Amino acid sequence: MYHRAFGLRIKSNLPIPGLSAAAKTDSIDIDINFGAAASELLPLSADNNDSDQALYHFRSIRDGAYFRLTYSDGTDFVFDRAASKLWANWRAPLTLEDAATYLLGPVFGLLLRLRGTICLHASAVAMGGQAIALVGAAGAGKSTTAAALAQLGLSVLCDDVLALSERGEKFFVEPAYPRLRLWPAAVTMLRGAPDALPRLTPSWDKRFLDLAQEPQRFQSQALPLTALYFLAQRSGCAAAPRLTPLSQRDGLLRAIANTYANIALAAAPLAREFEVLGRLVEQTRVRQIQPHRDPDRIGDLCRKILDDVGSCIPVDAALGLESRHV
């Protein structure tokens, strides 16, 4: 099977849940083998003294030629330093869908970092041929805000992992995969009931919005990044949602704090990353936006973003908030 995601050409021995099939190509970036026991492929030393309470263990093996990421549920990933080959295995009753949930998030974040691609904790939507990034830590509301904007007719480029590519004097957001992952509370807010969207897997309570189905659209081509919106902690203040411009210095510090897969920093050229992020905030509109604590105010949050960034979409006509459950 062949796929494309995050600007990479992928070959896998099994279809990857969440990714669309792509045309066969002789030139691939990552070769993925599901169901292969990494411990058999790459014999490991038995000196594992990590606490069983950890969510995951990440270590280099074979004198740094490979890395191994093992989750507490037994899902196991091994990949080479060049991030060109990956082996994945899992324990029953987990399934390929469970492994793909890790793969399309933290694992690809690691692979991209090792390949020299800078990634942000961000979701991104398309407006007027430009990419708009929603940046923040886990739980900040990136996916929920992207889903609300998608319900208003905007296309989505990525969810949670934003892969940047620098082309000439512009930064582009690479399209990821046609899904948005949402917690039941967000599904209730957007669709009226927690079970209005399907589960990612039977063992996870998280749901997904299929962007391949109209009217939820997936932007499959990379777009230039025009604005970064850093999601601040929610507030009950009457002025929220509140938008604040950020200086280049503050924007750089927040971009650094929101880079993805920092457990791979020992293998990543930090000086280059800071230099690239510095150019990014110089060329991009940088804002902090503070959502309101009341979930019913997400429509106001969308309006703030649309009004600030501007586009060919008439804002008032695009925001049919009540009829769209936003």
What does this entry look like structurally?
The chain is of the alpha+beta class and 326 residues long. 25% of the residues lie in helices and 29% in strands. It contains eight helices and 18 strands. The strands form three sheets. The chain has a seven-stranded mixed sheet with strand order 1-2-3-7-6-5-4, with helices on one face. A five-stranded mixed β-barrel has the order 8-9-16-12-11. The protein has a two-stranded antiparallel ribbon with strand order 13-14. A hairpin with a 2-residue loop joins β1 and β2. It is globular. The protein starts with a strand and ends in an 8-residue tail after the last helix.
Summarize it.
The chain has helices at residues 38-41, 96-114, 142-151, 184-191, 248-257, 270-283, 298-309, 315-318, and strands spanning 2-5, 8-12, 30-34, 56-61, 66-71, 76-80, 85-89, 119-127, 130-135, 155-158, 161-167, 170-173, 179-182, 207-210, 217-218, 223-231, 242-245, 285-290. It is α+β, with helices and mostly antiparallel strands and 326 residues long.
